[in-house]
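Bumping my old thread because nobody answered last time. Still need a sequence for this structure:
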């Protein structure tokens, strides 16, 4: 007899940040990011609000325990990747949340990433300064 809890897994991405999210059923609302409490990992409260917004929108705040592994990017990109992962995992739990989450824009992968540097230029599009004489 196994005592493993059922969970829903999804990954979320933003810029170069990747979040691997597990939503554990019959939870109490505890969020763990990289083996730390979420509010300890994300020191700025705005980031906490950002990644909890899909749960607030669907009234599932105290339904799940969330475990996430986040890597790459900065704090803001990691919080948005976590939000994307949570939204995608919520769909696996209940597909009726799709309309709500889609309308809020949480299911769309924000694909804006840094453009590569081109040869002959200083950065992706910044040309060397032109000098007449």
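Sorry it took so long. Here it is:
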């Amino acid at each position: 007899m196994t005592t493993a809890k059922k969970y829903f897994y999804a990954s979320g991405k933003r810029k170069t940040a990747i979040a691997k999210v597990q939503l554990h059923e019959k939870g109490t609302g505890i969020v763990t990011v990289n083996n730390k409490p979420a509010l300890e990992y994300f020191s700025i409260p705005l980031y906490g609000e950002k990644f909890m917004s899909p749960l607030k929108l669907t009234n599932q705040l105290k339904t799940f325990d969330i475990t996430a592994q986040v890597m790459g990017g900065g704090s803001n990109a990691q919080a948005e990747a976590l939000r994307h992962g949570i939204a995608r995992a919520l769909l696996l739990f209940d597909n009726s949340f799709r309309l709500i989450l889609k309308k809020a824009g949480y299911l769309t992968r924000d694909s804006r990433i840094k453009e590569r540097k081109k040869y002959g230029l200083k950065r992706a599009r910044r040309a060397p300064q032109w000098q007449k004489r």
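The first strand starts at residue 7 and ends at 14. Let me know if any region looks off to you.
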